[in-house]
Specification:
By secondary structure, the chain is an alpha+beta fold. Helices cover about 25% and strands about 30% of the residues. It has five domains: about 250 residues, Rossmann fold (3-Layer(aba) Sandwich); about 120 residues, Beta Barrel (Elongation Factor Tu (Ef-tu), domain 3); about 70 residues, Elongation Factor G (Translational Gtpase), domain 3 (Alpha-Beta Plaits, 2-Layer Sandwich), CATH 3.30.70.870; about 130 residues, Ribosomal Protein S5, domain 2, CATH 3.30.230.10; about 130 residues, 2-Layer Sandwich (Alpha-Beta Plaits). The strands form nine sheets. Strands 19-18-24-15-16-23-20-21 form an eight-stranded antiparallel β-sheet, with helices on one face. Strands 3-4-2-5-6-12-7 form a seven-stranded mixed β-sheet, with helices on both faces. A five-stranded antiparallel β-sheet has the order 1-11-10-9-8. Keywords: GTP-binding, Hydrolase, Mitochondrion, Nucleotide-binding, Protein biosynthesis.
Length: about 800
């Protein structure tokens, strides 16, 4: 028995890369991400006061819109130092933790995507009452796509209705992984006969008990298993069972732990260090098959310090991650990056923030080399040179100047004028190639550093749009500049010009997304503009193929004659086609024909060659860009075209019209010909496609009938699945037809009993999964709250586009044209 206060280090320390952790906190909205982060900052000594979301006093939610709404809108990065608790095997060493707090709202899923892209590990936070919610499943899949090692923190175990065991079972059912229960919650019976009081956690691995006595959570009472056996005999038996289950689960995947067990022949005697090593090995695989589970209540300041210890013990350093995949020569060659090569800097720009005082701040993750102040960089995506005039480390909205950003770390460059999200930055090279084969006569291609690119960050398509207009003509220039800065910050926003009306249209992921964009334009960038009502971004398509359309483009561009020709035909895309499509689900095939020419004097035949000012790859790119531009605006209402196969062909002998046949001329010819082919295929008839959403509604069981009736009746949706927060009942409902790697019957879920079983006090939670047209989901939250007495929630994500019937098409046409 004893008391322990965690030590905190507030001074800047240089730690080895093995003691560095780049982690993120991901979860459903309102699971407690920011609250947990604030406790981490406090216990590490970074802050002297705990910030609260409800008070608007948090470090991480610093934007006015975040503090007003009480939600995280933009991901915030911070760096702090944590010295883990002393271990019997080694002295504690300080660790640098670069942490990113991500949003939980579905409208800001791109913020999560670009943060996960540069992380090495993640903490997934679950609400102990609500369990694994829909957005949690989505962010879990996002992390899984990058093979990010993850641990789970079951939060809010102090709330009425919280149950740890069923939540663990739900992790197995919904996240398809084996829960490795590392902690059990400890409750004290309420002497007044009310709800049990959450006091602390049992550390199953170290065989000890952490008890918190209230206050700021700094003071922790440490107890051993003898105390647990005497004071909580039922919990003691559960803790022994939990250790047996943990060891047996790990032993199924780790032969080394089997050898330790065979030697000792007792689960209780296996050293904690051996279990931690096995847990770490399984977690670092990043496949999510074994998921370490921890417990706590961040708002009550319980469980956060052991969670930080788990970050150090189980999540990877940059050295533990697999080699970084890169490509060369526009993706034609692939390879990996040597992170130990300090001679060359390679960094990924994953976020851009426009600060009114500092200018453009480019957040980067350095994958090799050390980025120093005044470093000359080359942007391989844009082909431009830039200079890193200033380097800073971010502490939410505070910036501290630093001399360098070493390998494996996250920092900010100030002074880059062109870098965007997803751009690769490398050391500026003086020669044409720095990656050369050392073997003579080797078939390995010479790969130039200035063509190296890291894996890009996928940008989801927008589904809502609104018109935005300046208050006066004199404000147009400032609005255009503000929009350009906003797009550089958030690539999931799109800007387009309606050719018919001349209006500027801004498109985004959701209603809240566009509302925040409007607030930023007016409040942060001081743009004098008004945004119209938020509308849905539909798509157009064609019902039949067109005839080949040959177009001759001949006009002046920038004062010079440009002339070229090409032939284009379009047809509906076969849904079963496996050909790679563009972001809007189209395919573009390019054919360049070089017929043979017979010399009448000699009778010899030779292939027609491209003029010296054109190359095949450049011509293909120009034609591709021209056709893509035409597919961005449909023939009927000007919505982007989807589900189209466009075939663009150029006959060198007839379509190259002389020295005026430049790349710009061919691009323009492809655009005009594609537009003409689309109009012929459409034949004046509007074939519209509407976005269909994958919607998951969570409500109490007594409201289930009203929710299902509303979705399938008034909103024209199709209910796909009914589920509950009882994992065993969901498994039975599935009838064994769902393919799972996890056998739910073998999953260990602690049966920790509480004196008052209160989960059903507010009604059993149920979920409804459905496919619903986006148009019917506009304003749905207010309606859902009305029919569920404010207790219903929902999340939705884009599933795809469906063709609309005649009546719905007429409604949309009338709405768009104002008829």
């Amino acid at each position: 028995m004893g008391h322990r206060c965690y030590s905190a280090s507030t001074t800047e320390q240089t730690v080895p890369l093995a003691h560095t952790r780049n982690i993120g906190i991901i979860a459903h909205i309102d699971a407690g991400k920011t609250t947990t982060t604030e406790r981490m900052l406090y216990y590490s000594g970074f802050t002297r006061r705990i910030g609260e979301v409800d008070e608007g006093s948090t470090v991480m939610d610093y934007l006015p819109a975040e503090r007003t709404r009480g939600i995280t809108i933009t991901s915030a990065a911070i760096t702090f130092t944590w010295t883990p608790s002393s271990s019997p095997t080694a002295a504690p060493a300080p660790h640098t933790i670069n942490l990113i707090d991500t949003p939980g709202h579905a409208d800001f899923t791109f913020e999560v995507e670009r943060s996960i892209r540069v992380l090495d590990g993640a903490i997934t936070i679950l609400d102990g009452v609500a369990g694994v919610e829909a957005q949690t499943e989505k962010v879990w899949r996002q992390a899984h796509a990058y093979s990010i090692p993850r641990i789970i923190f079951v939060n809010k175990l102090d709330r009425v209705g919280a149950r740890f065991g069923p939540t663990v079972k739900e992790v197995a059912a919904k996240l398809n992984g084996w829960p490795a229960v590392c902690q059990l919650p400890v409750y004290d019976p309420d002497t007044r006969g009310g709800e049990d009081v959450f006091r602390g956690v049992v550390d199953v691995v170290e065989k000890r008990v952490f008890l918190w006595d209230g206050g700021d959570g700094q003071k922790i009472e440490l107890r051993d298993y003898e105390w647990l056996e005497e004071q909580r005999p039922e919990l003691y038996e559960e803790a022994k069972a939990a250790r047996v289950a943990l060891v047996e689960l790990l032993a199924e995947h780790d032969e080394e732990l089997v050898e330790v067990f065979m030697e000792l022949e007792d689960h209780a005697l296996i050293p904690a260090a051996a279990i931690k090593a096995s847990l770490r090995k399984s977690t670092l695989k990043g496949d999510g098959k074994i998921i370490p589970i921890f417990a706590g209540a961040s708002f009550r300041n319980i469980g956060v310090q052991p969670l930080l210890d788990a970050v150090v013990d189980l999540l990877p350093s940059p050295l533990d991650r697999p080699p970084v995949a890169v490509s060369y020569n526009q993706g034609k060659h692939r390879g990996t990056l040597d992170v130990t090569d300090q001679s060359k800097v390679c960094a990924l720009a994953f976020k851009v923030v426009n600060d009114p005082k500092r200018g453009a701040m480019v957040f980067v993750r350095v994958y090799s080399g050390t980025l120093t102040r005044a470093h000359n960089l080359f942007n391989t995506n844009l082909g431009v040179k830039e200079r890193a005039t200033r380097l800073v480390r971010m502490y939410a909205d505070e910036a501290v100047d630093i001399a360098a950003i070493p390998t494996g770390h996250i920092g900010v460059i100030i002074g880059l004028k062109h870098a965007r999200t997803g751009d690769t930055l490398v050391s500026e090279t003086t020669g044409p190639s720095t990656h050369k084969s050392k073997q003579k006569n080797s078939k390995t291609p010479q790969l130039a550093t200035d063509t190296l690119q890291l894996r890009p960050i996928a940008v989801p398509p927008p589904v809502f749009f609104a018109a935005i207009e300046p208050n006066s003509l004199s404000d147009q220039k400032h609005l255009d500049e503000a929009l350009a800065m906003l797009l550089r910050e958030d690539p999931s926003l799109h800007i387009s010009i309606d050719e018919d009306s001349g209006q500027t249209l801004i498109s985004g992921m959701g209603e809240l997304h566009l509302e925040i964009a409007r607030d930023r334009l007016v409040g942060d960038f001081k743009a004098n503009a008004e945004m119209g009502r938020i509308l849905i971004s539909y798509r157009e398509t064609i019902a039949a193929a067109s005839q080949p359309v040959r177009t001759v483009f001949d006009r002046e561009i920038a004062g010079k004659r440009a002339a070229a020709a090409c032939t284009v035909s379009v047809e509906p895309l076969d849904p079963t086609s496996t050909t790679a499509t563009t972001d809007d689900g189209n395919t573009i095939t390019i054919t360049i024909t070089t017929p043979q020419i017979t010399d009448p004097a000699t009778g010899e035949s030779t292939d027609t060659r491209l003029p010296k000012w054109l190359t095949t790859s450049e011509l293909e790119t120009a034609l591709q860009n021209g056709a893509s531009a035409a597919l961005g605006r449909g023939p009927a209402l000007g919505f982007p075209v989807r589900g189209i196969a466009a075939h663009v062909s150029v006959d060198v002998s007839t379509d190259v019209l002389g020295p005026e046949s430049t790349l710009a001329a061919f691009s323009s010819a492809a655009r005009v010909a594609t537009t003409a082919a689309l109009k012929e295929a459409a034949g004046g008839e509007s074939v519209l496609m509407e976005p269909v959403m994958d919607v998951v509604v969570t409500c109490e069981e007594k409201d289930l009938g009203k929710v299902v009736g509303d979705i399938s009746g008034a909103r024209g949706g199709h209910v796909l699945e009914l589920g509950g927060l009882d994992a065993e009942a969901d498994a039975e409902a599935a009838g064994g037809e769902v393919e799972r790697e996890v056998d739910l019957m073998r999953v260990y879920a602690p049966g920790v009993k509480r004196s008052v079983e209160s989960r059903d006090e507010g009604g059993r939670k149920r979920s409804v999964r459905a496919r619903v047209p986006l148009k019917e989901m506009v304003g749905y939250l207010k309606h859902l709250r009305g029919i569920t007495a404010g207790r219903g929630t929902f999340v939705m994500s884009l599933e795809g586009w469906e063709r609309m019937n005649g009546n719905r098409v007429r409604e949309v046409v009338a709405e768009v044209r104002g008829g």
